[in-house]
């Protein structure tokens, strides 16, 4: 039988966790590599981009709202015109019926 060589440790004992590596910090290497000023310039750029995007979105929303209002106003005007035409037609029919009655040509007589 052969003797196994043990690694250097207290009283020849070694941890069974040979797979466990030495602990390293959890922070990202990219964060440590950049200076504070670099990070702040990137943050300012990102904020400027977001501000521009927000403004563009608001402009687009305002344009869509304006178009909707114009469309609604046109529909309202069209409906109003249609109602006036119907009222005129009704008034015309009523007046014609009165005239026929005066002349003695009612629905009962003419069928």
Automatic annotation (TrEMBL):
Biased composition (Basic and acidic residues): 58-90
GO-annotated cellular components: nucleolus
KW Acetylation (keyword) present: no
Keywords assigned by UniProt, alphabetized: Coiled coil, Nucleus, Ribosome biogenesis, rRNA processing
Family annotation (Pfam families): Cgr1 (PF03879)
First-listed, main subcellular location of the protein, grouped into a coarse class: nucleus
BP-aspect Gene Ontology terms: rRNA processing
Location(s), subcellular: Nucleus, Nucleolus
Region (Disordered): 58-111
Bias kind Basic residues: ranges: 91-111
Family matches, as InterPro entries: Cgr1-like
Biological role stated in the UniProt entry: Involved in nucleolar integrity and required for processing of the pre-rRNA for the 60S ribosome subunit.
Family, as annotated: Belongs to the CGR1 family.
The protein's name: rRNA-processing protein
Organism field: Mycena sanguinolenta
């Amino acid at each position: 039988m052969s003797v196994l060589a043990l690694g250097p440790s207290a009283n020849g004992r070694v941890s069974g966790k040979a797979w466990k590596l030495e602990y390293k910090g959890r922070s990202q290497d990219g964060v440590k590599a950049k200076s504070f000023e670099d990070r702040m310039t990137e943050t300012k750029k990102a904020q400027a981009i977001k501000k521009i995007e927000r403004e563009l979105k608001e402009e687009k929303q305002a344009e869509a709202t304006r178009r909707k209002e114009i469309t609604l106003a046109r529909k309202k005007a069209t409906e109003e015109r249609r109602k006036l035409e119907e009222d005129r037609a009704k008034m015309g029919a009523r007046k014609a019926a009165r005239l026929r009655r005066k002349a003695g040509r009612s629905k009962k007589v003419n069928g």
